[in-house]
Design brief:
The complex is a heterodimer. By secondary structure, chain A is mostly helical. Chain A contains eleven helices and no strands. The model of chain A has no long low-confidence stretch (mean pLDDT 92). The chains are: A mainly alpha, B alpha+beta. The interface between A and B is medium-sized, with 18 and 23 residues.
Chain lengths: 278, 530
């Protein structure tokens, strides 16, 4: 009872966060319960129904092969959300780990990691991701790998700067003097001190990552037919823009809404968690 | 208080400067409002968009010869007419052969010259033809010359075997006549020196943009346009929208999705023809499709009528035979043993032991190997992506997995040559010489340059050998129909559809051609009337 009261108080004090959290849960719910929400099989092509405008039977209309667009957009939530979250988690952990090692150990490790990082950021991110995805071959997994390969630097640099800030604090020296092992220090001091900021950064990046995945799929480097993915659906609809605009409109709307929700949720989370934020 | 006021003023000016900078980008760029039809310096410039291009302009490599002919740079000895008949182009119409069709004599037109001023005589033609056989790769598939003799304007070609349709074969762009007396080491970029109404000014091997300018000394009359730019993009929307926005004056092969908008608009005119093309799904028998049962199942799952009527918006005719319904080669009389029959396709797979043993929704081979057919295609032709994805969806219904794989046209052509695919979609102009012999040999006969499917039918090979030496048109047609039936019986390939080709242009553009040959785009009469 007291816990519920606590949650209610927290929600009352953080209305913005609560609203966006609920919206994000709705999006996640759409992904989890897609089979119950979708009205048709998203893969089932009924050629006779191709390019039907929205009506009572097909709420968002149908695509070029007669597949129900509403069902594809709902199932697309699974693809887009899963890939974006996977991307954020991998980038967060890979980038943070490298940044923490660079910052804590310094020397050659620092130089090698940070010079590689400098090299990576000297190229425009998406262009480099396109090049990597092009080499790896078009698939959703390869698109995720390509974006991880260009996005980890942000977390590495951030983590390194956070580590450098706390590395020479008194409590760190005390930990070393009392015989704490390196692994213990990294786990209980460095990670604990840096993670809140890194997690907030990751949360605000979910929307951006989602857009990058959609961009690669739009360009043909990500999801491949017949997987329902919003970027790819936008690309498919482009050829029909003048005759069947709903094929672009609804996937575009889905991208817009979900990215906006996660961006605003990330901002709200930062307001609450980030100790460095004013 | 005073400090805060200054800050506000600075903030205001900075904001205003940023907004001003951003808005400046929204202005109309100089000249953006003008159409592409240039009249700069009083010169007529035409811009043509297309989803088709070649890797280089060297006519003897692959099918590159099509482009110098399409761009009006080169010409051939003979020319194919819209009724598939052949007449002289660089040669007079009085060509003839001996009784057994092994010696052909041509008279080169007296007034023909190359664009560099060199006279076109039989010797120059001889050198150009010899270049095809010595340095090219497909020449011998057309005919094997024993000797080519030149004497003034008289050209005598002696062949190893009887060549009853040699004038047809010489109409193929592979045999376009180029000046070999000049340095052709940079022909890939600079293009060949030909006899056509235009001269290649530049060809970008990366963007595939080609610019041609008026041949000032064209042998067959005054050229009406000063400059033509050929812009390449495999993106169908880009091409259509380019025409609507005025960036292009004409566009080759507007997609079925966009053609309706131009039909309704009186500012444009459209030229169409049934064409000799067939959109073919080649099946590589070196992989899982070596099993005839699987090929038959693939074929019997293709609802080509619905593809053409609904997905391709009646801009295509449903395929049945290798050779288009627009010509008389058995479309109405031959029997397709693998016509659309989804129930039977499922039954075939069940009986052959294709079952889903791992529960992933897709069947494995009787030996338990997963089946995942790579379907290679390109987007330079609008029907390809649709038929490939429709085939993928159709095959998924019977539990056969197909993975589409898109590449640019040139890469797909290279893959076709090496056999790096399970299924490959390609649009072939089977009737490009007014006769299908060469293309059948190239794509289906054992040893054909582009036959990497492993298909080798003794019956077909024998029939095509007979076609090669047969002079009687009726007999040729009968033999070719038999060969087509062999291909149908063997389930050699999917004949998806026959496109109705189009060229859409602004109403003031004249002299752009859409022909069954598909490589006579522009000529000396191509012009802009505004």
């Amino acid at each position: 009872m007291r816990d519920i009261q606590k949650i209610l108080t927290f929600c009352k004090n953080h209305k913005q966060f609560t609203v966006f959290c609920i919206l994000a849960l709705v999006v996640i719910g759409a992904a989890v319960f897609a089979p119950f929400i979708a009205t048709h099989n998203p893969y089932e092509a009924v050629i006779a129904n191709a390019e039907q405008p929205p009506d009572a039977k097909h709420w968002f209309g149908t695509d070029k092969l007669g597949r129900d667009l509403f069902s594809r957009v709902i199932y697309g939530t699974r693809t887009s959300l899963t890939s974006a979250l996977l991307l954020v988690v991998i980038t967060l952990f890979a980038g943070s780990a490298l940044g923490i090692f660079a910052g804590y150990f310094g020397g050659v490790i620092d130089s090698v990691i940070m010079r590689i990082s400098d090299m990576m950021i000297s190229f425009p991110g998406l262009v480099l991701a396109i090049a990597i995805a092009g080499i790896l071959g078009p698939s959703l997994l390869n698109a995720v790998i390509a974006i991880v390969a260009v996005s980890w630097t942000k977390y590495a640099r951030l983590a390194r700067s956070l580590v450098l800030r706390i590395k020479h604090k008194d409590y760190m020296s005390a930990a070393v003097l009392t015989g704490s092992k390196t692994g213990y220090i990294l786990r209980n001091y460095i990670c604990k001190m840096t993670m809140p900021v890194l997690i907030v950064t990751a949360a605000t990046d979910i929307g951006t990552m989602m857009l990058e995945i959609a961009a690669l799929s739009f360009l043909g480097f990500g999801a491949q037919p017949p997987i329902p993915e919003w970027g790819m659906m936008l690309s498919e609809g482009r050829a029909y823009l003048q005759t069947a605009p709903w094929m672009m409109f609804f996937p575009g709307l889905a991208v817009f809404i979900v990215v906006a929700v996660f961006n605003l949720l990330g901002d709200s989370l930062r307001d609450i968690l980030d100790p460095l934020c004013d | 208080m005073k400090k805060a006021g200054v800050k506000k003023i600075i903030a205001f000016f900075v904001s205003a400067a940023i907004c001003g900078s951003l808005l400046s980008g929204c202005g109309v760029a100089a000249g953006a409002g003008e159409t592409s039809t240039g009249t700069a310096e009083g010169k007529k410039t035409l811009v043509i968009g297309s989803g088709q291009s070649a890797g280089t302009l060297d006519p003897i490599k692959a099918y590159n010869g099509w482009y110098p002919v399409r761009y009006g740079i080169t010409q051939t000895l003979t020319k194919m007419n819209d009724d598939y008949s052949i007449t002289g182009w660089l040669t007079e119409n009085d060509y003839f052969s001996n009784e057994d069709n092994t010696v052909w004599t041509f008279t080169i037109k007296d007034n023909a010259t190359f664009s560099n001023g060199n006279k076109l005589d039989a010797e120059a033609v001889k050198k150009s033809l010899e270049n095809v056989f010595e340095n090219g790769e497909r020449g011998v598939e057309y005919f094997a010359p024993v000797s080519i003799e030149a004497d003034g304007r008289k050209l005598v070609i002696t062949t190893l075997k009887p060549e009853p349709i040699l004038p047809n074969k010489l109409a193929d762009p592979l045999f376009c006549i180029i000046d070999t007396s000049v340095d052709n080491s940079k022909i890939d970029d600079n293009g060949p020196i030909g006899t056509g109404p235009y001269v290649c000014e530049s060809f970008d091997t990366v963007t595939k943009k080609c610019v041609v300018v008026k041949n000032q000394i064209y042998w067959n009359g005054e050229v009406k346009t000063d400059r033509i730019e050929f812009i390449y993009s495999e993106d169908q929307s880009t091409i259509s929208m380019g025409l609507q926005s005025g960036d292009f004056d004409a566009v080759y092969n507007v997609s079925m999705n966009d053609i309706g908008a131009f039909e309704k608009n009186s500012d444009y005119k459209i030229k169409t023809n049934p064409s000799g093309r067939t959109t073919i799904g080649f099946m590589n028998q070196s992989g899982p499709l070596g099993d005839k049962v699987l090929r038959e199942a693939v074929l019997q799952m293709q609802d080509k009528d619905s593809y053409c009527k609904i997905l391709l918006k009646n801009q295509y005719v449903p395929g049945k035979t290798l050779i288009t319904s627009a010509s008389d080669y058995g479309y109405d009389t031959l029997t397709d043993p693998n016509a659309y029959n989804p129930e039977n396709a499922k039954k075939l797979l069940d009986e052959a032991g294709y079952t889903d043993t791992d529960g992933d929704g897709f069947r494995e081979t009787p030996a338990g190997e997963p089946v995942n057919l790579r379907f290679v295609y390109y987007t330079g032709r609008p029907e390809q992506q649709i038929v490939v994805e429709a085939a993928q969806a159709a095959m998924a219904k019977v539990g056969i997995k197909i993975t589409p794989e898109v590449h640019d046209t040139q890469t797909v052509m290279d893959m076709q040559k090496t056999g790096d695919y399970d299924l490959l979609c390609m649009s072939i102009n089977i009737m490009n010489c007014g006769d299908p012999e060469n293309q059948i040999n190239t794509y289906f006969k054992a040893g054909g340059t582009y036959n990497a499917t492993g298909y080798d039918s003794e019956e077909l090979n024998s029939l095509m050998d007979q076609v090669h030496v047969s002079a009687d048109p009726k007999q040729r047609k009968d033999l070719i129909k038999q060969a087509e039936q062999v291909l149908l019986n063997d389930g050699a390939a999917i004949y998806f559809c026959y496109p109705i080709m189009n060229f859409v242009m602004k109403k003031h553009v004249d002299g752009i051609n859409s022909t069954p040959a598909d490589f006579y785009w522009v000529d000396e009469n191509t012009t802009i009337n505004n």
